[in-house]
Amino acid sequence: FAGVVYNYDQEGVHRAASGWEQCISIPLLQPGMAELLQHWDELLEQFSLEEAWLPHRYEEQQHNCYTFALAFINRVRQGQGQEPLSKAQFTESFLLPRTREASRYLTLHQELAHRDVYVVLLPEEEQDS
């Protein structure tokens, strides 16, 4: 994917096109909803300029990057007539499944890196059976 990552810390909101290559992407849009992406980009830019995200408002435990992301998601949900998500709901529904999946891949990668393994791609007809 190409894009810009917004993040919030004690220095305020940052926009970065690189430096996030090791992060986990959590898709929030269902397939077929790509037309919303441009609208989300505009909403995110407006949202990031709000007073709530000024540097002096940052608080490590209660008003941080996680708060920023969840507040934006809830703003979008509100605009779609949906109920806001609590931190617990968002963590359980969106974050934990993706981090568990990433953990499985990292474990597999570590196992393979320490063994002599040869990977063979099967012809398509054998893969389908």
Automatic annotation (TrEMBL):
Pfam entry (one): DUF4796_C
InterPro entries assigned: MKRN2OS-like, MKRN2OS-like_C
Endpoints of the signal sequence: none
Highest taxon, organism lineage: Eukaryota
Gene: Mkrn2os
Domain MKRN2 opposite strand protein-like C-terminal positions: 2-112
Protein name: MKROS protein
Source organism (scientific name): Vireo altiloquus (Black-whiskered vireo)
